[in-house]
Amino acid sequence: MRTVKVSTSTEYDILIGKGLLSQVGREVAKRVTPCKVAIITDNRVDALFSAAVSDSLTEAGFSLCKFKFPQGEGSKHIGTLSDILEFLGEEEMTRQDIIIALGGGVVGDMAGFAAAVYQRGIEFVQIPTTFLAAVDSSVGGKTAIDLKAGKNMAGAFYQPKLVICDTDTLSTLPKEAFADGVAEVLKYGVIGNKSLFYKVESLEFTQDLEEVIETCVSMKRDIVMQDEFDHGERQLLNLGHTLGHSIEKLSDFTISHGHAVAIGLYLIANVAEARGIGEKGLAEKIRKALVKNGLPTKTDFTVEEIARGALMDKKRRGGAISFVFPEKIGSCRIQKVPVEEVEQLVTEAMESR
After folding, report:
1. DSSP 136
2. Fewer beta carbons within 10 Å, N or C terminal of the chain?
3. Is the pTM of this model over 0.90?
4. Which CATH number covers residue 106?
5. Is 153 exposed, middle or buried (0-12, 13-18, 19+ CB in 10 A)?
6. Sign of CA dihedral 50, 52, 55, 57
7. Which residues does 150 contact at the CB level (< 8 Å), separation at least 6?
8. Are 125 and 188 in the same domain?
9. What is the CATH number of the domain that holds 335?
């Protein structure tokens, strides 16, 4: 088992290894006196993993209740959050009890946000069961729901008590869902780890998933510890996300987060190269790595549609949006773009394909 230690406003461990679901009760009990646990999950993950987690917690002396909702981004709204909060109240959960988020990014976001606001904050544990959640969304304390206006528009910074990543769960993922996580790994490579990028590009990483996850969460840990509340360096983690979120929302979430980020990553690399920010051939290197891993690089949405969605991005500050531009594999820069120039940026991204 690998352990990554995080020291933010809350200190916690990220545990990575095989067979960890059977150790959940023991690991949680090391950090929390046995109490009542509310498992928050979705219907697909519930059928696969709830029994193992529940048995482990019961053996460690915890009492349990469980809330599940329909799988997918379509559930990530205020109605589901309201249902979770009412459930916690009906179960008489207190601030001495804990929530466990068992699932992918949607579950982690929903359960984490509920933990942040229920009784003004109770502790929660992340148990990611997708590659994307393991390498990215389960770590760092961002929790959110979607609004009609855009993705992740309401939420809270709220760090978990513990993250437990059982890599055995990743074997149950469909190919497309696994690729979502690969998009985020490639993002980390472009941000600051050249060897990671080329390892994924060559498809040599699948036998070293524990190492890949440890590398990604360690990179995120280091960035978040410097900028927990997303005012500066943490914005690097948004590489490909501003345009990606717009595409994801335009598709009514039929394009998954990782696939949308892949498109956004390639588009912003096009802009960087066209403007002389990125080195020659950068966009093609990124495109090849994405395609080799079964990820898309094109969209049928128009420049106007994508630009309109980008202008709703939560990274907008007054009259500008911070975009992350890749300079070369392993190096990026954050640069503010005036809102009136965003449509031109998207035009350059689409023309350079």
Report:
1. I
2. C
3. yes
4. 3.40.50.1970
5. middle
6. negative
7. 245, 249, 309, 312, 313, 314
8. no
9. 1.20.1090.10
Residue 160 shares a structural domain with residue 286: no
For residues 283 and 273, the answer to whether their CB atoms sit within 8 Å is yes
How many structural domains does the chain have? 2
Contact indicator for 21, 52 with CB cutoff of 8 Å: yes
- Identify the domain boundary among 172, 192, 217: 172
- Smallest CA-to-CA distance from 349 within 312, 314, 311, 298 is with 298
Q: What is the pLDDT of residues 238-271, one digit of tens each?
A: 999 999 999 999 999 999 999 999 999 999 999 9
Alpha carbon distance 267, 272 (integer Å): 9
Domain ends where: 155, 172, 189?
172
Give residue-wise pLDDT tens across range 102-160.
999 999 999 999 999 999 999 999 999 999 999 999 999 999 999 998 899 999 999 99
Q: Are residues 117 and 211 in the same domain?
A: no
User: What count of residues does the chain have?
Assistant: 353
Residue 131, judged by CB atoms within 10 A of its CB (0-12, 13-18, 19+), counts as buried
Question: Which residues does 246 contact at the CB level (< 8 Å), separation at least 6?
Answer: 264, 301, 305, 306, 307, 308, 309, 310, 312, 313
